[in-house]
Amino acid sequence: MMTETPHPSQRPHLAAVVEDRFYEAAGWLLRRVGWRPRIETYSGYGSPRRVRVLARVLLAPPGRVAADNAYRAGRRGFRHYLTVPAPHRRVLVRVGGVHQVVRSDRAGYVDVQVDLPAALPLPPGWQRARLSDAGAPSDSGRAAEPTDPPALEHTADAPLLIVGDETRFGVVSDIDDTTMITSVPRPLLAAWNTFVRHSSKRRAVPGMPALYRRLRVAHPESPFVYLSTGAWNTAATLRAFLARNAYPPGPLLLTDWGPTMTGWFRSGQTHKNASLDLLMSWFPDVRWLLVGDDGQHDTGIYARTVERRPSQVAAVAIRRLNPAEHVLAGNPPDGGAAAGPEESELEGCGERAAVPTVTGADGSELARRLAEVPGLLGP
Description:
Immunoglobulin-like; 10 helices
């Protein structure tokens, strides 16, 4: 979720215009019956001197806080998508003694970088930013300044994972069919899982929680970042799933499924590539274990990352889907027995850059292969 900055002369795509008009009408109606803006926060990340804060401003009924994650996580799938954003709201972000006023974008999202004073760095570990809805922009169109005294309407805390300067190892993990069995490539079953099935019914990929816990024991200070093309609407469900299966906690980097200023749909590959580039630019001294599966585009995305930033990739681990999953994903009926173009590209990049690449059917097999890579799983 990175804010779009279209060229000033660019006309919005028809899909974006239709969506904006729909939300404008829905927002007007809901406000008439007493709904108010509320802030739903997501886990961000940062260094002791700079943080990335993620949230969304939504309309919620009286007495209901949209950031009530326990309530949202327990809802049936389709209800996560029954949301109406509050676009262009002023939001006061307070973290580490810094106050910064920003605006939510056309879909209600807040994605802001906050630079902290060198004399007041945040300690490593989990910290918090406080976000407050400061109302609609003034009619004058003047940009809000941090010194403005807004009338705060709602406040919520956003978790922040602060990566210490001494940290040298981290994990970036896909979610669908890597940590969680979702069968996302299967359209009908994916729709059932996403819109109908209760979140508590989802199952972990065998052996993956144990593998991630071993990595956490071997690298206690390492950040875990979960990168997916899933929608931000499911963030509470995914957090509950990861906690229920004892995966190490970490920020979720998801995306908005809605139209963009240039088209009907967002590119999942672009989202993952941009998120990896940003993460690695923020932490140039961290070497990352990249974990994904061969059902969609993880192999190609990771190959690109290895080629561009070989010194920042400690290893790549790819879960192999079984033959039935490959067929339903639209891959050849041999179940991927022969490496496809993306997998061959990944192996070639790994060889050229001396980046270990392992594959396995589940977490147990990946753990055995990763144990052969020096320094990954400890002695």
